[in-house]
Write a structure and sequence with these properties.
Blueprint: H1 10-27, H2 35-50, H3 54-63
Helix pairs in contact: 1-2
């Protein structure tokens, strides 16, 4: 992965979304016609996995020369 700090390659991310959408579909009783809803929720779930954690964000701020939260 070049400059982006994603945890997953595009193919890995899509596969994780696909698996999560399928799980949501099964958990909700396999309803017809809600595939887009499940896909979008799965994207949000996987996107949350990729979000920087608070400690990582603090370190990034100090690298940029900005102060992070004081303790």
């Amino acid at each position: 992965m070049d400059n982006d700090r994603s945890l997953y390659s595009d193919a890995e991310r899509e596969e994780r979304i696909r698996e999560r959408a399928y799980t949501l579909w099964v958990e909700q009783g396999q309803p017809e016609g809600r595939d887009l809803e499940h896909w979008m929720e799965a994207e949000r779930n996987v996107g949350g996995e990729e979000a920087p954690q608070p400690r990582e964000m603090d370190e990034n701020l100090s690298v940029l020369g900005k102060e992070g939260p004081t303790e």
